[in-house]
Design brief:
single chain; mainly alpha; 7 helices
Length: 205
């Protein structure tokens, strides 16, 4: 099935997941910043489904990559919910202990860069969402990660005055990630039209 969609935005989203996620995860763990490592881990997990979707666009959404997409979404849904649980428990413990991460300019720069990259990516993905259910799902995941970027920026800014801001942002991220994990789990039950590449015939390539 030819949708007219380009695989470039999906691959760009996957690349952003690596380029933003890896340093955010490392820096967050190093500084004890819950919101930062949660954002980073989520980016790495969100990038993998986008990579698979980009490959499916290349293949014209034939049946060949359908099972790969289902398995990827299923694995990502489990991992996102585990990440959500870890973020929530860590954030609650931090709120009870009044712990705050180390202050610095790097987290603020990283949060700003994340929004600057993810906002146009989501805009492009949204424009393609109506072409295929897989593209719509990937656009939704990009929007969720953009929302996490907004929470990260808020946590970093407020953390300069309020010790609890990072933990509060991490807690909100955990809740959002759990919701996204549930949505991914539902996404594994693709419709018949999607499983046939939208052509209406299960004999397509």
């Amino acid at each position: 099935m030819k949708t007219g969609a380009s695989p470039v935005p999906a691959f760009a989203t996957a690349a952003a997941g690596l380029l933003l996620g890896a340093p955010a995860l490392w820096l967050g763990l190093d500084q004890g910043a819950i919101a930062l490592w949660t954002f980073g881990a989520a980016g790495l997990l969100q990038g993998l489904p986008s990579l698979v979707v980009g490959q499916r666009v290349r293949e014209g959404f034939g049946n060949r990559g359908l099972e790969r997409e289902r398995l990827t979404l299923r694995a990502a849904s489990h991992l996102l919910r585990l990440l959500a649980l870890g973020a929530i428990l860590t954030a609650v413990a931090a709120l009870m202990g009044d712990r705050r991460p180390q202050a610095g300019a790097v987290p603020l720069i990283l949060a700003g860069a994340a929004l600057a990259i993810l906002a146009p990516l989501w805009w492009i993905r949204r424009a393609q969402a109506g072409l295929h259910p897989s593209l719509a799902s990937d656009a939704s995941r990009t929007r969720a990660w953009l929302e996490l970027g907004g929470l990260l920026l808020a946590g970093v800014l407020l953390g300069r005055w309020f010790p609890w801001a990072d933990a509060a942002a991490g807690l909100a991220m955990g809740v959002r990630l759990f919701i996204e994990g549930q949505a991914l789990a539902r996404g594994t039950a693709l419709s018949t039209a999607a499983s046939c590449g939208g052509c209406g015939s299960c004999g397509c390539g």
